[in-house]
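Field reference: sequence -> structure
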Amino acid sequence: MSDPHLEDIPTEALVAIRSGRKIEAIRVLREQTGMGLAEAKSVVDRASRSTGPEMPRMAAGREDSGLLRLLAVVVVLSALAAALLLL
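Structure field:
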């Protein structure tokens, strides 16, 4: 495929590109089009430059989720420590 337009790229690959998941986009592109690795990477790189990933919003969501999990672990460990102290 020489210089595909965005409408030629599978939707699943575009979603991955816009979410900043280039490796997944390359995998999808290869599976759905039969492209080689180098060509798929080149297409994904060009598409990500022209569409621009929505990284700030996506990354913030992932960070918040990670922080919430960390907070939950800290709360559970604190509760366990308090329970052990009371024994």
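Note: Residues 55-87 form one domain.
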